[in-house]
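pipeline/complex-builder :: batch 7 item 3
reading input block
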Amino acid sequence: MSTKYVIGIDLGGTNTVIGLVDVKGNIIAKDAVKTQAYTEIEEYTDAVSNVIKKLIQENGCEGQVEGVGIGAPMANYYTGEIVNAANLPWKGIVPLGWLIEKKTGLTTKVTNDANAAAIGEMKYGVAQGMNDFIVITLGTGVGSGIVAGGKLIYGHDGFAGELGHVTAPVLEGRSCGCGRMDCLETYASATGIVRTARIWLETRSDASVLRSIESEKLTSKMLYDAAVQGDALAKEIFEFTGEVLGEAFCNFIAFSAPEAIILFGGLANAGELLLEPIRRKMNEDVVFLWKDKVKVLKSSLPGADAAVLGASALGWK
Amino acid sequence: MSTKYVIGIDLGGTNTVIGLVDVKGNIIAKDAVKTQAYTEIEEYTDAVSNVIKKLIQENGCEGQVEGVGIGAPMANYYTGEIVNAANLPWKGIVPLGWLIEKKTGLTTKVTNDANAAAIGEMKYGVAQGMNDFIVITLGTGVGSGIVAGGKLIYGHDGFAGELGHVTAPVLEGRSCGCGRMDCLETYASATGIVRTARIWLETRSDASVLRSIESEKLTSKMLYDAAVQGDALAKEIFEFTGEVLGEAFCNFIAFSAPEAIILFGGLANAGELLLEPIRRKMNEDVVFLWKDKVKVLKSSLPGADAAVLGASALGWK
């Protein structure tokens, strides 16, 4: 019987979502386990493997699943390991791919969530038919998956594509969780944009609906809502964030000359609020060779399922 | 008869050097034409093709040449064209590869000089056996050739790898020839380092042998000589330049996670004067994953012939 399905797993700090996916990128069935409920990796991989087996059984897909793809933080494609992931319960180096493969009998590939997103866009999304593109994930942090010449760039060690940790083209002196200063994600992630808001609310005095919200409780969603309602300060925060990204994109383009840069994840949902300043700044400042030539697109993978779908794309041989 | 040789061509603003190269990377014979002597591309390619034929004949290599590789500024690998090269006599788009191929009957590939250097390092130099590395050329400008997964990154349009035109991690407001501000090459090229010297000699008051040289006549070689002789200001200029490069390398590493970054071209000859601050700053500031893991090497291709050798490597199928 030919293989028609793959398993996609989005391993997040809170939930692990497991989906059974067909060749067209439809999620046939899915289930989840609580990542933090398992302090031992053996127990965690037992639970995940049981869900995989259950999904296959319940949907009559025995013998038709080609493999498992997992998107996880700090995941190494070459070794199938997770290495010192700050937000997961298992410390040090964890042989995730090997364990899932052993417990399910299915070929298992592991990569970080942004690489999974890039493969997902290439297989099912807006990057279909593209050989050179970059996916930028704008979530709690900033991640990236870089495809060049039709292949994902994994690098010498399997960890390539950490564009959240390149130096931002503004040097305000923001410290990053990684220990460096002024990493792109200190400005352009969901937490980075909130950081901008908190700083501006302190240093500036113009009126804003944001002033009625307790600083500690501010979220990027609140900034978005305020901007959509026309709050000038909130709009300016998105403009600044977009410009920082647009300027950073100039550097990414000089590196791999992509056909498109694709935005993925929470903050990407801000749409034109972010896309307009990104495109404007990028085309204003990119090396002349690429002026008005590189597309900036929003992921076309369906919202909540995008990460599972991305990971599943890795399961195909 | 099997093919044992390739032709390598280093197309520079002043001279075009043409070499006959064997499989081991020995230049069997070479000759040159004056690039600026030919205002018409037809005449230039006639002259170059005649030298190619002469080198093959004189060395009894008829039927044994596999192809021609050309390293040239603003060269597009996909089309074989040179596009708006500022320092060459032929304006607009010039079908260089097609003309040489037509006139010699030899398969001809064209790429920019830094990409040629990268292929040269992979075929004959320090990058033999490496699948992931970056060559940075430090000449009048800064160029780069990026190899990922064993393949050179050409990008969507053939122009990838313009790392001289990423934003430097210092924002002094130096304008670049490309129209942007604070491109890496405004700090870290042979002209960039002279620019630093001129600025520092104006803004600072410490003693230096450099003060006896007319500002307009300063060269990077003079800075090197002064530093070697122990001039404190000159040494500090190399340290600053190395630190700028080291910090920029942190970003390049986050992109493609290379095994090594290889320095090529004039300024690379400064050796430890530049390598020490590069390595120090890079390992101080790179994302923890790569601390003390990425090699910084000097090209091992032989001095004056390195560019011809690099280009020749493109001639092999």
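note: The interface with chain A takes residues 83, 130-133, 146, 148-149, 151, 153-163, 165-167, 169, 171, 178-180, 247, 250-252, 254-259, 285, 287-290, 293 of chain B (CB under 8 Å).
queue -> next item
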